[in-house]
Structures are given as C-alpha cells and as structure tokens.
Design a protein that fits this description.
single chain, mainly alpha, 22 helices
C-alpha cells in the first residue's frame, strides 16, 4: 500500500515559488484580492500541489486539529491550560488557524479550474475533475469548522474579479458539494491519460480510485445531513453506494509525506520537533480506557493500543509500549491538579502515528465501512449485507490500514479475537460511532464533526470539560470555531444575516444535534 514519493519533494520545490506570500493570507477577501495568484504554470504540475496544499501544516495542524478538535473529542488531553481549545476557552489565533491558512489553497484551485475547462480542452478533463473533488474536500472541512462560508465565490478574485465573496449557508453548501462531486465523478474519463501519474499524489492517475473517492465523500456528506435533512441524506447516501464507494484499503485517499524538511506532516512536526508543544499532549484517559477495555463496547484490549500510544521520558526517549502499562491523562485538569510527573502518561506513538512521514489521511476504507454500517442500520443500504457485517469489516480495515504509518501488521488472530469479544448482535449507532471515533485517532476534524452530529461516543458526551473561563455553558461542548476579526472588518458581505451567528464557540451548526441529545437511526 506504500506509494512512491520520488516526485513528492520535486513537486513541493517546483511549486514553492507560487505560494510566496501566502502564509499571511487571513481571509477569503484578502485571498481574492491577491495580485500574485498563479496564472502561468502548466496545470498538471500545478495540480500536484493541491493535495499538499490542503494537508495540515504544523501551523493549523497544531492549533485546529490538536488543540481544538482532538482535545474536544478526547483523543488527546493537555498538560498545559495554555492550549485553549482543550479547555473550551478562546484564543483567536488558535481558533482561526485553519481559516487563516487554508483560504490560500483555494486560490490555486480556482486558477487550475479556470485553465482546465474540459469544454475548451478535453486533455484537461481529469485534472479539472480531480481539482473539483479536492475543492469540495477543503471546503467541506472549512464549513464543518465554521458554518456559513463563501462557497460558490471563494477563490475567484483573480479568475472572476470577485473581490468580496458572498457567504453561503451550510444548508445550501452541502447540496452544492454533493452536486459538485457528482458532476466531477461524471467528468472523470479513464481514456484521457495526459496527467503524469507522478503528479497525482493521491492515486497515481488511477481514475477508478478517484471515482470511488468522490462517491465515498458523497456518502460522508449525505450521512452528515442525516439528522436534519433525512430525505436529501438518504438520496445522497444511496447515490454514492449505487455508484461505487471504496472497496478495500487499497482505495484509501491519503497523501504520503517524507522525512525531508518542507514536506513533513505538520502534526508529526509538533511531536518530533517541539518539546514544549509535543510534550504537552497526552492520550486522553477517555480514549485509553476504551482501548484497554476499561470502558466502551469491548472489554478486551484493543490490538491498536500500543500502535496508537507509548510512554516517553521528558527527553523524548521511549519508556514503554507495553499496553498494560499505558495510562491516559484526564481531560480538563487545572494546573493545580496536574500530577508531579505527567510523563507517566501515554503519548501518541512517535515511531508510527506522528512521524514526519506519517500520512495525511483524507478518507479511509474503514470510515466508509462504518458509514455503510450506519446506512444499513437506517434501512438505507438494502440488499448489501447487514449492519453487523459492515461494522466488523470497518473495524478490521481500520486495524489493517495502520501499516501505512509504518506500524507492524496486526495479526488476523488478534483481530478475530477482538471481533469475537463484541456483543453478538446488530451494533447500535453508538457502537458504530465509537468504533469510527477510535479509527479517526489524530483526525480530529472528522471525529469532532461526527460527535457533534450524533452525540457519541457516550464516554465523551458524559465527560465535558468545565473550565473557569469556558466559552460554552456548563456541561456543553464547543459547537464550532469562530470567524477571524479581520474578516468581519474587511469583507462587507460578512453580516449576521448570512454568517453563522452568534459568532461564538457554543453555536451549533446546521447539521448538529442539540446539546445533550443523541442521534437515533
């Protein structure tokens, strides 16, 4: 399953000149007005940067994913109260990091789309369709973090002279994203082979895998709407399933990073390079208790435990990876409650999960199987296996795909023993989401979204952090990230009428359940 990285560094270096000045882009308005947008690079080479541009750099990976999403969903816990998201407090720089960094990637995406119209030049058909799919990926994450965002007009300052993009509501964005994926799926043409496979960092030019990825994204988006727009959700889910989603771990959508500085995985850099930053995170007691069988669906030790986690000394040296010796850290402790030695608690395993070269996982086959299990549970997946079958296949796939992190392959006997320990019946929605939550370790974006949608896992829902300066009411989890102050000042189309308001961390998004409630299929 490992992919060639021969061209990865070359692509990053070749494209780096295009992105000069992008680090300080802090709003879609400023991004749209940028006069240095790329206009002359060959589309195939320009496309190669898109997957890299939408993966986490250290900046937003540290702040949006780790400090906020991973802590809120209790994959991780913090040994410093300075990590605001872990305590539901507000640090605008941390809270808006994803927004501030990722709008610049839309500039490149829109430039590629403007230069690859298949109606004008059919040789660019696949580049155009692939770029549309990746545009949906980054916009999907943006709207799931913030709510209403510019969707239709985002990134079109140079291509269409739209200097101040208008905002779209999530209830409009979701159907638009599904439609865009469906159209892109239809544009993909295996008979067009002008794209150099080395420039496709996800699937090396395999059109069938791009089609499966598009459908798998439709499946995810459809299910996200399940609690608020069930008819639309069911139609999208069944369209995706009928069109063909991922079928094995060979179909996983991920970008493989390298050890070389300049294309390391941003989250890996946090743990490998920053003693203060990396050492301030521990594996949450909530997750560790589920992995070790102290809580959760299974009472057996999860065979992923010592792949996900290990214990390290203060100098970063490995102390133990014996799963029986690993202990999680409690979320939400105040400084005076911290133990004298916080290094006795488990951290993400630095030889597997948080290397420089650990992959950026866009969507896994395991996640798709859990979505299929939920679809079967809801009666939206007739004639293709029951929920239990998809559920078990999801668990097995999620365990086996850890080899892409360089982890040892989990023995089939261990997987079978774990599956045998689960209740011998159809899984509940809570059990499906709990297993998906485990599989999404270090992908806090999706774990947080699924928690907000369903209220599961119950082990998280019943354990909110109540910090003295929390931005949320007592016993309530954050519902979103806020908008940057400068966006409110710069873009005249930013108004309370069209944006998600009130603009605070406790506001619920369109597709999320109410505080304290759980989803029911």
């Amino acid at each position: 399953m490992m992919r060639s990285t021969t061209s990865l560094l070359c692509v990053a270096l070749a494209f780096s000149f295009l992105m000069v000045g992008c680090d300080n882009v802090t709003s879609p308005t400023e991004m749209n007005e940028d006069p240095t947008a790329p206009t002359s690079m060959e589309p195939g080479l320009q496309f190669a940067e898109v997957p890299l541009g939408i993966t986490d750099t250290r900046f937003e990976g540290w702040r949006a994913n780790l400090i906020h999403a991973e802590c809120i969903t209790q994959h991780l816990a913090s040994t410093t109260t300075a990590w605001s998201g872990c305590y539901y407090t507000l640090n605008e720089g941390y809270n808006t990091a994803y927004w501030n960094r990722k709008w610049s990637s839309l500039r490149n995406i829109e430039d590629i789309l403007s230069k690859t119209d298949p109606q004008e030049n059919s040789e660019f058909t696949n580049i155009h369709a692939m770029t549309r799919i990746l545009r949906v990926f980054v916009m999907h994450r943006m709207t799931d973090l913030h709510g209403a965002v510019p969707y239709e007009q985002a990134g079109k300052g140079v291509t269409e002279e739209i200097e101040n993009p208008e905002y779209d509501a999530p209830s409009e964005i979701y159907p638009a994203m599904i439609e865009d994926l469906q159209e892109a799926r239809g544009q993909l043409d295996p008979s067009v082979s002008t794209l150099n496979p080395e420039r496709d960092l996800l699937f090396a030019g395999d059109i069938q895998k791009w089609q499966k990825f598009s459908n798998s994204m439709i499946l995810r988006l459809g299910m996200r709407m399940s609690e608020v727009a069930p008819d639309q959700a069911r139609a999208a889910v069944q369209d995706a399933l009928n069109s063909g989603v991922m079928e094995s771990n060979d179909d996983i959508a991920y970008v493989e990073h390298v050890e070389t500085n300049g294309d390391r995985w941003g989250v890996g850099e946090v743990f490998q390079d920053f003693g203060v930053g990396g050492h301030a995170f521990r594996v949450s007691k909530t997750l560790m208790d589920v992995l070790t069988g102290e809580a959760g669906v299974s009472s057996d030790m999860d065979p992923r435990t010592n792949i996900f986690a290990a214990q390290y000394a203060e100098d970063g040296s490995l102390t133990t990876e014996n799963p029986a010796s690993l202990e999680g850290f409690e979320n939400g402790l105040q400084s005076e409650e911290f133990p004298d030695n916080t290094f006795q608690f488990a951290q993400p395993h630095r030889s597997y999960m948080v290397q420089y070269s650990s992959p950026s996982l866009f969507q896994s086959y395991g996640e798709v199987k859990f979505l299929e299990a939920e679809a079967a549970l809801r009666g939206w997946h007739p004639g293709s296996g029951d929920a239990r079958q998809h559920y078990e296949e999801g668990i097995e796939a999620a365990m086996k795909h850890l080899t892409i992190y360089g982890a040892p392959e989990i023995a089939q006997s261990e997987i079978d023993d774990y599956l045998s320990s689960l209740p011998d019946r159809e899984p509940t929605l809570e059990e499906i989401i709990e297993q998906k939550w485990i599989a999404l370790f270090l992908n806090g974006y999706e774990a947080w979204a699924e928690f907000r949608r369903t209220g599961y896992p119950d082990e998280v829902r019943t354990n909110p952090v109540n910090a003295p300066a929390s931005e949320t009411p007592q016993d309530e989890f954050p519902g979103r990230l806020i908008y940057p102050t400068n966006e409110k000042q710069v873009n005249p189309n930013f108004t309370e009428d069209v944006t998600t308001s009130p603009d605070n961390m406790s506001t619920r998004l369109w597709w999320a359940r109410d505080p304290g409630e759980t989803a029911t299929p």
